[in-house]
Design brief:
EC 3.6.1.22 (chains A, B); five-stranded mixed sheet; 279 residues; Aminopeptidase; four-stranded mixed sheet; 13 strands; NUDIX_hydrolase_dom (chains A, B); metal-binding (chains A, B); magnesium (chains A, B); 6 helices; Nucleoside Triphosphate Pyrophosphohydrolase; homodimer; alpha+beta
């Protein structure tokens, strides 16, 4: 195997002649190594032990090992050496170990899924609603806002426009986040952030996504709010009131602006009306 | 191994006499099995194949296998049978497989880490600021708002009060989310949601968290804003303006209210001032 030390990345050997795992340093005093080739468990175990000794001498803190799906057999050895799991994605498992005696300050795994509910209302005060084919509301004849999960790497405003288009075929323009809800233990112990978004329709014709949606329509607002399902759920009553206050009143949510930090662009959602800005 | 079918959970055998993995059904037409005992790879492989055949006949969709850290050696067999990784936590790896020919509708892995920045200002217009021991700002003499990561299962308002207490010893009461920022590719490809929170101080004495914080103090607001670091970062300029608008003007953020949905309590963050509520 091609291996090198973190201090001498071009060589597979330290001055002592011991082969070490290749590693790159991170900003927090740790090292990361990515497995790329199959290896005999006992050879991997020896390599891991000598590397850990070396990193301990160097005063390193966190040690990360990324194992691709095809080499998952190597994970057992790392676990035996004291590693645990940090996170996994479709094609890899990330293991981690903490060298110092003090409590670890490793970054947490992603903890939240992000969902959106889209409030889309037209000039005739009709709201865009759907019936779902799967999930807890299926087959109950309930009309609800289009909802969906924001993809990894996707902005909330882009995700809500995409979900409305996919489910109903309607083109929209993002207006504001009107509110959001945080809840816990929703799926495998993870937490959820659900953003109630207002979008302005740019088209009216409906084309239903057959895989997930049973039906979609523009429904008079009063008819939507009269549904027992909407009346009985506290969250939906709040959403109804907020949407009504936005349509008929002066309710101000958060508007996204592109804002950079540390040379990275992101979207800042804020109450632009209330801000006396110098920007 | 104790094994049972999903249709006959008390028995390890179907009418055909084939042993199957024990499984529980989920709400989305899928099944989940949790490995609990070591097994020979070839035995596991045979069991997995017969179980998959059975679940296919039953019309099941997603198949989940939860493998505890101690049994990670079993993952290699599941990967060879076509499974991939869905997510991992400290002590387990969750693998998944999709039976139907159609595109999978499996729930996404958690995609976001959630952070907070705490704006705490006292009656003398002094803001609570810290210098960090680690990370990209260490050793630069920069005074910044206390920041931190919200724990899994923790509410944003609780997390911000906790972080301020841990880093500075100051007791606070949560007031509002003033804005939030979404950014991407921050750590291992995950996204970040960073909530700018205003908190009201309930105590003034500072006691620094020695592991992470170099120093903390109450700093005159003007002195904080004059720092080149604060002037040069677009995000920090916005935060400064928003916080000033909140202190001196009429800026309205989102206030949390306990709101239930589907018998589960969560926190709904909304513009309570602008809402003409019937609640």
């Amino acid at each position: 195997m091609a291996a090198s030390s973190s201090t001498n990345p071009m060589s597979g050997e330290e001055a002592t002649g011991v082969t070490l795992l290749p590693a790159v340093e991170d900003r927090y005093g740790g090292v990361m190594t990515e497995m790329s080739q199959p290896m005999d468990p006992s050879a991997f175990s020896a390599l891991l032990r000598s590397s850990l000794s070396n990193w301990t001498l160097q005063g390193k803190k966190g040690v990360w090992i990324k194992i691709p799906k095809e080499l998952i057999g190597l994970a057992e050895t790392a676990v035996k050496e004291g590693f645990w799991f940090h996170h996994a994605e479709k094609n890899y498992l990330m293991l981690v170990y903490w060298i110092p005696k003090e409590e670890n300050t490793l970054p947490a795994n992603a903890s939240h899924r992000v969902g959106i509910g889209a409030f889309v209302i037209n000039d005739k005060k009709e709201v865009l609603v759907v019936q779902e084919k799967t999930g807890r509301l299926q087959g109950q004849g309930i009309w609800k806002f289009p909802t969906g999960v924001v993809n990894e790497g996707e902005d909330i405003h882009d995700g809500s426009v995409r979900e409305v288009k996919e489910e109903t075929g309607v083109d929209t323009e993002f207006v504001q986040v009107l509110a959001f809800r945080q809840s816990h233990k929703t799926f495998c112990g993870k937490s959820d952030l659900f953003f109630v978004c207002m979008l302005k329709p740019l088209s009216l014709e409906i084309s239903v996504q057959e895989s997930e949606i049973e039906a979609a329509q523009w429904m008079p607002w009063e008819e939507y709010t009269k549904q027992p399902f909407v009346q009985n759920q506290e969250l939906l009553r709040y959403m109804t009131d907020i949407c009504a206050a936005k349509t008929n009143g002066d309710y101000q949510g958060f508007t996204p602006l592109p804002v950079s930090a540390f040379d990275q662009l992101g979207s800042l959602y804020l109450n632009t009306r209330d801000l006396q800005s110098r920007h």
